[in-house]
Design goal:
By secondary structure, this protein is of the alpha+beta class. Helices cover 34% and strands 18% of the residues. It is built from 6 helices and 10 strands, in the order ααββααββββββββαα. Strands 3, 4, 5 and 8 form a 4-stranded antiparallel sheet that branches. The protein is globular and about 50 Å long.
């Protein structure tokens, strides 16, 4: 009775069997976690005495009720970057800038959006994808790169250098966080390259351990027969 059930006909009632299947697959994969998160958020708001109904941003820039999110969480896959594009459009209007590029970097990906003449484009539902898997849902045109600050770099079984999709997350996080992470991440690489100032991370609220980054990156470099210089 507690099993999360989803059907491709309800999630993506369109032809193209493979694209419909992958959309339903992603919906089923994220469904239980999203439903649990929304339930906790809704309960927490109620306990705090916050009135009104909870709505969640959708990937197309609209809003979903909690029932919609529970049934079709796939509608929210790119909701964060979509909200960023709407916010950037509003900020651009205030500052009289109509042509903008948004850049949203997280722990596992970097999302890029384009605003032209104060307007964003909607993606063609038959051409959108996440991590190489077709995703047939309405969404703002956002280009996603599968590497973020926490993405882990490694040498694969074939000896090739790869980055992601595994991520160190916030905990343990990159090696430089000194929270137990030992694998090299994109953040560690940026510390080694001098692109991040260890003593001024997050505006000085957090310090990074450059030696830990160097140690983690050096270990991978040795595996690849390279140096970090």
């Amino acid at each position: 009775p507690d099993c999360y059930v989803t059907t491709s006909a309800s999630v993506s009632p369109m032809f193209r069997e493979f694209e419909r299947f992958t959309t339903a697959l992603i919906n089923a994969y994220i469904g239980p976690k999203v439903a649990n998160y929304v339930a906790q958020l809704e309960g927490g708001l109620a306990d705090a005495g916050v009135g009104g109904d909870l709505h969640v941003m959708a990937s197309n820039g609209g809003a979903c009720t909690t029932a919609m999110v529970n049934n079709k969480p796939v509608l929210t896959v790119l909701s964060g970057p979509a909200a960023g594009i709407l916010g950037a459009t509003w900020t651009g209007d205030l500052s009289q800038h109509q042509n903008l590029i948004t850049f949203d970097v997280g722990g596992t990906s970097a999302d890029i959006g384009i605003i032209t003449k104060g307007e964003h484009e909607m993606a063609n539902a038959r051409e959108t994808e996440i991590a190489g898997y077709p995703l047939m849902v309405p969404q703002i045109d956002i280009h996603t790169i599968g590497a973020g600050g926490g993405s882990i770099a490694y040498k694969d079984a074939g000896g090739a250098f790869k980055v992601g999709p595994r991520s160190a997350g916030a905990v343990p996080g990159p090696a430089c966080y000194m929270r137990g992470g030992e694998e090299p991440t994109v953040t560690d690489a940026n510390v080694v390259l001098g692109r991040l100032v260890p003593d001024n991370f997050l505006g000085g609220e957090m310090s990074l351990n450059a030696d830990a980054s160097t140690q983690a990156v050096s270990k991978l470099a040795k595996e690849l027969g390279l140096s970090i210089e």
